[in-house]
Amino acid sequence: MMPLALVAEGEEVRLVAIRGGRGMRKRLADLGLNLGMTYRVVRKCPDGPLILAVKESRLALGWGMALKVMVELTSSI
Domain range for residue 21? Predict the structure, then answer.
């Protein structure tokens, strides 16, 4: 288990935990980030947001949130 912020571009991950308060967990769930689901890191740039492929859309997360989202690797592209 590691923070989403440490995952490389192209990696596929499974969301296993969110280390944030109720508001943050609700916000992420509203955006489509739910425990147990699989996502792919599309873009990771130090001077911008982290971009995830969520189902058929893209989602941008700031680095603060990405550090609190805990994932495990499923495979690499």
Answer: 2-76
